[in-house]
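Reopening this one. Same input as before:
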Amino acid sequence: MTTTPGTDVTSDRARLEANIEKIEALSQRLMEAISRRKPINPALNGPDPLLYGKAAHAYWMEWMQNPAKVYEQQVSYWGKALGHYLEAHSALAGGQLTPPEDTGPRDKRFSNPLWDSHPYFNFIKQQYLISAEAIHRSVDEIDDLDPKEKKRLRYFARQIVDMMAPTNFFATNPDALQKALETEGESLVKGMENLVADLEANNGELVVRLADENAFKLGENIATAEGEVVYRNRMMELIQYKPTTEKVRETPIVLFPPWINKYYILDLKPQNSLIKYIVDQGYTLFVVSWVNADESYADVGLEDYIEDGYLTAIRLVREICGTEQVNAVGYCIAGTTLALTLSLLKQRGDSSVKSATFFTTLTDFSDQGEFTPFLQDDFVDGIEAEINASGILKSFIMSRTFSFLRSTDLIYTPAIRSYMMGETPPAFDLLYWNGDGANLPGRMTIEYLRGLCQQNLFSRGEYEMQGLKLDIKDVDVPLMSIAAEGDHIAAWKDCYRGVQKMGSRSKTFVLSESGHIAGIVNPPNKNKYGHYVNPDLKLSAEDWQAGATYQDKLSWWPLWEEWLRKRSGKLVPARTPGDSAHPVLCPAPGEYVRVKAA
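Same output, byte for byte:
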């Protein structure tokens, strides 16, 4: 086959014109989508401006009182920046088209070889890293500033530094430029299509899709453990899972997942399903699937979660299984609320819970850790104003808050891939779950933020409910707490401090490697993350870990099962879901989990 001269040019021109038409149409849709965005409370977009004023005042006071120190900082920064510029300029002037040798630490954002081999990109990278170091150092060396305010300033400085990374801009991102050249601009058109689709799907709010939402269907290729919904009320569905063994332990387990997210993080797929693992070890397992709140739940508080969730579930599990007690498990905020429930039961003289297990659970908030920026009055005031307007804390606000704790991984990198590279979000079950969030009832949110996080009332024995003062010391059942070494949501040392304050005489603390999710979803067949154990809980957190026994690449699941087995009674015939008084309503995963956040 032969082509006439100019055929390729004509084809390229036609493709270019078609892309221009697409961009014009997409631009119109983009503006329409942005116009639908509702104004958000200003307090949710950043700190009180006074924080920066205090930082500037502290900086100038430092300049006046110790000018040599500030001068040294400035000279150091300019010296590094100018030295790198002259080194690069000298190499180019001498005919070298290779940059100076890069001896700095590796940063996965700069994995493209061009960041090291190309003079232009290497120069940009090095100048960025030098500037970032100078900013962080300046914040760290401000002395005349309250520790909480300094922690907040450090957080917002990091956000600015991460936002200004050269990888976040098309002209200084070699991956995006290469992709645009290779696809003759198609990647940019596709990226704009992705951007418009995300804005349209979220009423003008920019929420980056992390996973392909069409790749998963609940009950088919995710959340597939076999079970039945045996009860439903306004707060929850109670799922009882089908046995996979002929006999089971007498004492059943009831697991309370966090209502900030959906429960199926514990049942993503059979290979890493904690739910399946528990059932396969010969236990009768019930799991609560919380309702996804709408505006009608504005007045629902923590007491409602305890009465209509925890206490109702515990009562139903005992009735269905014919037992006096249950073993209870709580994850994250559900673990915090399980501790409140145990204090309430203690003061009522109710011994329905035989043992408690806490996954990444905070109960002592005296140190707010990485959440310090979000737990000061200016931000919480903004949350409260948002709740007063809508009745709920919408899922995307909470999701955005968590994402900014790891902004490079959960915001900028996905945005680069989707909007600059034009890539389809991956079919990744964990990221799909991460994007399938839940709204939070207004009253509950404020009670949690004000009473627990800010005022730390439970740890101080002053959290009031039903005329009682709930106290962390009332948590006196045998317990095991699993925290995660790299957890950026529930820091392990803070989890440990709460366990130390609990009144139980039988306490076990386990420190898993990895983070808030992978530290818990850590199946034995992966041989990936190990854990630490140390029976001496009187030690400081640092000394506890230093003296702990480390199990390399061994999951904590078998350790927990062994601990649980000793508190679960004899073997009895396996139980099928429900009974005549509690008929099956529908198959797992149920209906509540399918409701999407507004």
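So the earlier flakiness isn't reproducible anymore. For the record, The chain is about 45% helix and 10% strand.
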